Amino acid sequence: MVLNIPPQLSLTRAVCGSFTKDLNFIYFNMIPLNQEKAKNFLKQNEIENYQIKLVAGDASFRSYYRIFVESKTFILMFAPPSHENVAPFIEIDNFLVANNFSAPKIFAIDKNEGFILLEDFGDQSYSKALAGEEESGALELNLYKKSCDCLIELHKTQSPQGLALYNNELLFREVMLFVDWYLPFVKKIELNLKDRARFKLLWFRLFDLLNRENQVLVLRDFHADNLMVLQNKTGYKSVGLLDFQDAVIGCKAYDLLSLLEDARRDVNEKNRAEILNYYLTKSEVAQKSFLQDYAILSLQRNIKIIGIFARLATRDSKPHYLNLLPRVIKFIIMRLDSDDQIFGEMSDFLKKFI
After folding, report:
1. What backbone torsions phi and psi does residue 63 show, to the nearest 5 degrees?
2. Domain check: are 106 and 145 in the same one?
3. How many angstroms separate the CA atoms of 118 and 103, rounded?
């Protein structure tokens, strides 16, 4: 067995499958893989005489390894049980596969040690596939339309039972990350009790405007780093889905805006408008209601994200996330500067703190 993991978590560069990053940031909080336990797990599943290579880590404590054995490859997910619960991933993965969506097949599970052996979708994430694209954005348009098709099919599917609702309480708990992390650690501001009460009131007024009818499965992290190009499949099944363990039941608009307002890459502006129109036309949603949901959730999600990035930088020693703030803040300002009257009071309040 050859384990290509930098000794003592040294600072090296690695090329990931679904997440091409400078991994020196990831190593700060990554819990090292127990090689002996991994070896035993793989042996129990008739995998021996293999090579293993770290391919990805993310904003959580999960890490991913590619297993090379003979002419085959697999992905080993390691989710330390002390920090991660693999049950939601397993549940959503099984649901997606059973309903003919392209989530990685699960070959083996060890919940006690946090191991899952998965189908390998290869190296072509949307982010990687689009990294060197020409300004025309033709490939981006093609891939993103397939992603829209995937969402439309997903929204036609009966959602799994027992998932949390993306209700006002959860939506507000997320935007509190802005108050608890972005303001004190990035802006050096502590909200007083009066402003906290105002913050909550304004958000709940917006959340009460959301259309709660015909809610669907929301994958929540539907963006270019988590979407894979599957060359051996066609149509919406050519979209490989990753990182969906936080799925909830909520508004149709959420995953689409995650795709189009990506915190990690710039989407061609012309394409963004065309893709949104493509979804509106093909899905046959009630456009006025959908676009209002889209706008509200856009502001909510981006306010949440700058709170998450501040927390990752401060608590988890991952300062590179601060480099992503300008792109996200641009989306926030776009909403606050819009002519949409629903943001009037919120705009006056938030502009003091962004």
Report:
1. -140, 160
2. no
3. 10
**Domain end (from 119, 144, 164):** 119
Q: What does the angle CA 348 – CA 351 – CA 354 come to, to the nearest 5 degrees?
A: 155
Summarised one tens digit per residue, pLDDT across range 94-122 is 999 999 999 999 999 999 999 999 999 99
Q: 111 and 228, same structural domain?
A: no
Q: How many helices (H) and strands (E) does the chain have?
A: 12, 10
Nearest to 253 by CA among 295, 282, 224: 295
Question: Residue 322, by phi and psi: left (phi above 0), alpha (psi -120 to 50) or beta?
Answer: alpha
Do residue 102 and residue 142 come from a single domain?
A: no
Q: Using the predicted structure, report yes or no on whether residue 27 has a pLDDT greater than 60.
A: no
- Over pLDDT 70: what percentage of the chain? 90
Query: Which residues are registered as beta bridge partners of 76?
Result: 65, 117
Residues 190 and 339 in one domain: yes
For residues 256 and 163, the answer to whether their CB atoms sit within 8 Å is no
Model-level pTM? 0.89
Question: What is the reported pLDDT for 58?
Answer: 61
Residue 14 pLDDT greater than 50, yes or no: no
Domain boundary pick from 53, 84, 119 = 119
User: Per residue, what are the HEC states of 45-72?
Assistant: CCCCCCEEEEEEECCCCCEEEEEEECCE
The tokens describing 1, both together, are: 């067995």
Q: What is the mean pLDDT of the chain?
A: 90
Residues 53-74 have pLDDT tens digits of 998 766 678 899 999 999 999 9
CATH code of the domain covering residue 178: 3.90.1200.10
Distance CA 250, CA 292 (A): 14
